[in-house]
Predict the 3D structure of the following.
Amino acid sequence: MLSNKTSTPKYKINQRVKERIRPVGNTLNTYRTKKGVVKNIEVKTNKVGAKHYYYTVFWDKDGTQLIPQNRITEESL
């Protein structure tokens, strides 16, 4: 059953975000969480018509990256 609910982006431009922790190997102690600021929002639509949000994030130390919404979370201060 399809819903008429329209999707909206979860994050806004200039909002602080961080990359979600992903397991790398057997230990998490070598994984460094990247933090940055959302600079742009892109919407991509699949064949079925579902919208997926991608964000251009300016990381504090690693430059910019286009990243899907499910790979980032809000940075808590």
The mean pLDDT is 85.
